[in-house]
Amino acid sequence: xxxxxxxxxxxxxxxxxxxxxxxxxxxxxxxxxxxxxxxxxxxxxxxxxxxxxxxxxxxxxxxxxxxxxxxxxxxxxxxxxxxxxxxxxxxxxxxxxxxxxxxxxxxxxxxxxxxxxxxxxxxxxxxxxxxxxxxxxxxxxxxxxxxxxxxxxxxxxxxxxxxxxxxxxxxxxxxxxxxxxxxxxxxxxxxxxxxxxxxxxxxxxxxxxxxxxxxxxxxxxxxxxxxxxxxxxxxxxxxxxxxxxxxxxxxxxxxxxxxxxxxxxxxxxxxxxxxxxxxxxxxxxxxxxxxxxxxxxxxxxxxxxxxxxxxxxxxxxxxxxxxxxxxxxxxxxxxxxxxxxxxxxxxxxxxxxxxxxxxxxxxxxxxxxxxxxxxxxxxxxxxxxxxxxxxxxxxxxxxxxxxxxxxxxxxxxxxxxxxxxxxxxxxxxxxxxxxxxxxxxxxxxxxxxxxxxxxxxxxxxxxxxxxxxxxxxxxxxxxxxxxxxxxxxxxxxxxxxxxxxxxxxxxxxxxxxxxxxxxxxxxxxxxxxxxxxxxxxxxxxxxxxxxxxxxxxxxxxxxxxxxxxxxxxxxxxxxxxxxxxxxxxxxxxxxxxxxxxxxxxxxxxxxxxxxxxxxxxxxxxxxxxxxxxxxxxxxxxxxxxxx
Length: 643
What we know:
By secondary structure, the chain is α+β, with helices and mostly antiparallel strands. It has 16 helices and 27 strands. It is globular, with a radius of gyration of 28 Å. This is FAD dependent oxidoreductase. InterPro entries: FAD-dep_OxRdtase, FAD/NAD-bd_sf, FAO_M, GcvT/YgfZ/DmdA, GCVT_N, TrmE/GcvT-like.
């Protein structure tokens, strides 16, 4: 499959000939791009694809609607290619078995997803969204062990609480599938170059390399050869570990328990493979923030075959159109920071992820490993006050305090930027859909829209001076916002400086009807509606602490202020607020309290109410848009006639 006359130039170069790489190359070729694909081994034989069991999981397994959509696109692609008859493809179905209550609940949720039509928002060619219908075949729930035994007599079913039969799961030949994708890509003009390994005899100082047509041999003279001054690059090699039956022992015991007939087999071969996992069990896809034009599709977490077909189409369209056709916020490579690439962090987190390969994670799931990587300066005080970090908890008392008295919420994890420069107004006005050219001391809630009018993020912008703003955005947007703003600053040739100050400030949300009195006590200044109205920003002092930014926006619709405190004085300020708050029965609260409060005031929540597929007009946020201002995506934002 090697092109001897390899193309001298290409629109897109794809590195890797596994299921992800061949899928991307196939879809790019269909879009008319000149593609070169490089693979150091044989197509489909290296990496995780080479040792894959060839099982394609049906869409109903996936909790997140984006993953379900991608799994559906993958299955449709494989079904279409299978009609050519060049690789094994069996629609065998799959039986999921649960012997614990949590997994029983998971199966019932899968069943509810499998017996309905689901509309999924995808961008049309003309902007806005259309509904792509995901048609799910009927699935079966079986809660009678005797019925299970009758249908599958080789299984031990006495301890099974519930079984689910999914008819859409497929078994196929993954290597042949990759080769078919590569062949179809070649027919559309893709060039493929296979890099066979070189063999070096270090003592003999000779090497050879075998190709499909000849063997290249060479030797090197020793005179004049000098060592490298330094090693400036590394090459990752995907190897397969030696079989370890002791390591596999616990899994084998579970297999023998479920299917005792396996114990009658005289001989079995063990193959060990490696897989790429991410810290949150979601693939990484998108453009790198470190190099323009460099796109990533990796970290498929043991679900490569199930998702790669759809992910390849997604990335190909992203490369061609400059924008993803669906919301990919939870898949975007920009959701991770550099600290997430720390080897110690990954070594602690990945085993927990790998253990959940066959389990679903729900929106409220919290991981238990590699925690406390970044902590608020007042972490220990909050812990001693009874805070639960990242765990689901009851919020009735905290909710009542924020509604009737005063609550204190640590919001330090929110993304924070200082944006300044002579072109800052022109720059931000083009990125934001609201009018941000407001007087100094004003705070504006706005969306940043992409070219089709959907949200890149929502944020608040507080004007600190004629040429500087303070921006606050959702926690997960830290890297994505920086990448987006740097891209447009460069494209607009705008003279602006963007500084990530997330780690420089501790943010405390003082919220509730008594917050006005508490803030007046600790600041010794008037916090009346006249002196400090809503959507305003002022620099204040609390005790001896200076340089505190107070913004009268609570992100939940209740009266209050978020105060951004320089970290070096955060503990002192926190203690003063808690001490003064005793008079008003102050109670510590958390994010879950804020989420309950914001629902009552119709405040939107990133990733749930708004995302890249939703425009401000569609989610009832037209009043936050200045339709007279020219900004990114303004052509796709038209107010309703009643407005």
